Amino acid sequence: MKLTNLNLGLITLFSFATIIVSAQDGNLLDGVQIHGNFDLYAQQYNKDSIIGAPIVPEKSGVNAFTNLIATKGKFSAGVRLESYIPPVQGFDPRFGDETIGVPFRYASFKQDGLEITVGNFYEQFGNGMILRSYEERGLGLDNAFDGARVRYSPVKGLYVKGLIGNQRFYWQKSDGIVRAFDGEVQFNELISKWNESALRVSIGGSFVSKFQSGGTSSLDLPENVGGGAARFQMNYKDFSLMGEYAYKENDPTKSNHYIYKSGEGFFASATYSRRGFGINISAKSIDNMEFRSDREAGFNDLFINYLPALSRQHTYSLAATLYPYATQPNGEIGLQGDLIYKIKKGSKIGGKYGTTIQLNVSMINSHDREYYADQDPDAAVELLDQQVYITEDQSRKGYKANLFNIGNEVYYRDYNIEIDRKFNKKFKLKGTFAFQEYNIELIQNKASTNVLARIWVLEGLNKLSKKHSIRWEAQQLTTGQDQGDWVFGLIEYGYSPHWIVTVLNQYNYGNKNKDLRVNYPTAQVTYIHNANRLSLSYGRQRAGIFCVGGVCRNVPAANGITLAITSSF
Q1: Radius of gyration, CA atoms only, the chain
Q2: Is 77:106 a contact under the CB 8 Å cutoff?
Q3: Measured between alpha carbons, how far is 58 from 56 in angstroms, rounded to an integer?
Q4: How far apart are CA 162 and CA 182, in angstroms?
Q5: Which of 405, 438, 424 is nearest to 547 (CA)?
């Protein structure tokens, strides 16, 4: 979206209102509250052929965002100004089609259980399996709707919402129109006799459809594609159970090779928790559940829905960035289990402060599929790509699959254990071991056998005094595949409450190509004051993958200075 006169007017209006409120202590705009935030991420690039850093003609990249929101009584309105001069390397270059603009603006009104929003908005139904729009700035992902949304609660415990709109496509909008409705019943709120019951139950249902013209394809493509989902949640004392099932009509797209097959998805989770002990088991199966408002879209563009990840979100560098798992929307089936147990304080094993043990298991496989015309998967895909009908009856459905039949192909395995112990008031130690099996050919499109990786992590925190502390990490990853073995070290000095100084390095000492046995040192200084955070770093950035919730983007190698500023008001 270009910086139109309307957008310029909105920016001027909010800027002027902010000045007046600040200067006149609110006397001229009594009751109006202005708040927002600012976010800037900038990189300066140096030439570094050793790590394969791309040459950047502009020598730098800047992503900047400013949100301004005004509220008064029942009304609220907001705008977001975005700037890419040019985009930071690793973000989609299509953000560079416009250097500055306002892709997000809205106005909203609330009264007596009714809320109406026009303009841009984010929304989620249930777990998001049939609809979720959201922003994840670190991924360069923003699939906000532009249209209208209504939420209404006629009585306490009954909630309905509906929307219509197009999705954001960088600086433009998708051609596809999304229409959606969702309803939820909270029985403990609706039925007065159940208000104080230990058993809490809710159910919900959603319907979503998209419209996109058939275009010029030789195939007879459906212009209206609908999908629905049903969900429930139950809580009883220390136990909770939830589940959701989603269905989507046949939706031939570029990503599924234009097959006329319906999609299905199922997600369930059970949790038991009490003091010192917790266990969670989650299961997910999805088949052909990629749902976009444009059938030609790729990458992370224009997803209507979100498929929850079923793998642990690691925080340590080697486990989180070398082999993170990306959800496979065309099909996967998985299971995850978490167990947390705290050994009692004062026991011989638990020590004076207790010891926490966390176990996690993630297992994700392919589906067991039967491809039509006795074709193996590669041959079947080739036929589909060539737009060849397999048989008249099968009408390019591609394959048959049962949602709960597990295939033989391993996509991902992650078995890890973490032990966390506080030895005294000044020293805390955490140790982690993880074993991962990673289908690098599927996830990163690298021709290789599955990567088998073992990861060891030791983290310590030493409190030197009330204001001074030192945190350190030592990590090692060993594997006989891909880039081979890595080692990582970090030391961080904290001066509370404002300063953090960090020095780290990672070294690919086991690479079979000796020329690629490279160090990646980085030094960083961070300053924090109230709601302001500023960090400045210099060093090398390793090429890899950055993921959040199973959604990923590629991060290129870089050498240079990085500046990050966040502030809210």
Answers
A1: 26
A2: yes
A3: 6
A4: 6
A5: 438
Contact partners, residue 340, CB within 8 Å, separation at least 6: 277, 278, 279, 356, 357, 358, 359
CA distances from 177 to 1, 160, 489 (A): 17, 20, 49
Q: How many CB atoms lie within 10 A of CB 146?
A: 19
Contact 300, 141 (CB under 8 A): yes
pLDDT along the chain (569 residues), means of 10: 45 46 52 92 95 92 95 94 94 92 95 96 97 94 97 97 97 96 97 93 98 81 95 96 97 91 96 95 96 93 93 93 93 96 90 94 94 57 48 67 92 97 94 97 92 98 96 97 96 96 97 94 97 97 88 92 96
CB 171 within 8 A of CB 103: yes
- Give the number of other CB atoms < 10 A from CB of residue 142: 22
Give the DSSP H or E segment for 60. strand 60-72
- In the chain the first and final C-alpha atoms are separated, in Å, by 26
3-state secondary structure at position 27: coil
CA neighbor of 396 nearest in space, from 170, 221, 149: 221
Enter the tokens of residue 125.
């139904």
Q: Enter the DSSP assignment of 112.
A: T
Specify the amino acid at residue 271: T
Cα separation, 192 vs 196, whole angstroms: 8
Phi-psi category of 189—alpha, beta or left, where left has phi over 0 and alpha has psi -120 to 50? alpha
> Is the whole model's pTM more than 0.70, yes or no?
yes
Tokens of 248: 């989507």
User: What is the per-residue burial (b if ≥16 Cβ within 10 Å, else e) of 181-190?
Assistant: bbebbbbbbe
> Counting every residue, how long is the chain?
569
Beta bridge partners of 150: 116, 162
User: Half-sphere exposure (CA, 13 Å, Cβ side) for 160?
Assistant: 6
What pLDDT was estimated at residue 200?
96
Q: Which amino acid is at 54?
A: P
Q: Given this model, what pLDDT does residue 395 score?
A: 56
| Alpha helices (runs of H) in 249-376, residue ranges in sequence order | 317-321
The amino acid present at 131, given as its one-letter code, is L
Query: 3-state SS of the chain: helix, strand, coil percent to 5?
Result: 10, 55, 35
One-letter amino acid of 63? N
538-545: list long-range contacts, CB under 8 Å, 24+ apart: 538/562, 540/48, 540/51, 542/51, 542/321, 542/506, 543/51, 543/52, 544/321, 544/322, 545/321, 545/324, 545/326, 545/444
Q: Is the peptide bond before 86 cis (omega within 30 degrees of 0)?
A: yes
| CA within 13 Å, CB half, 85 | 7
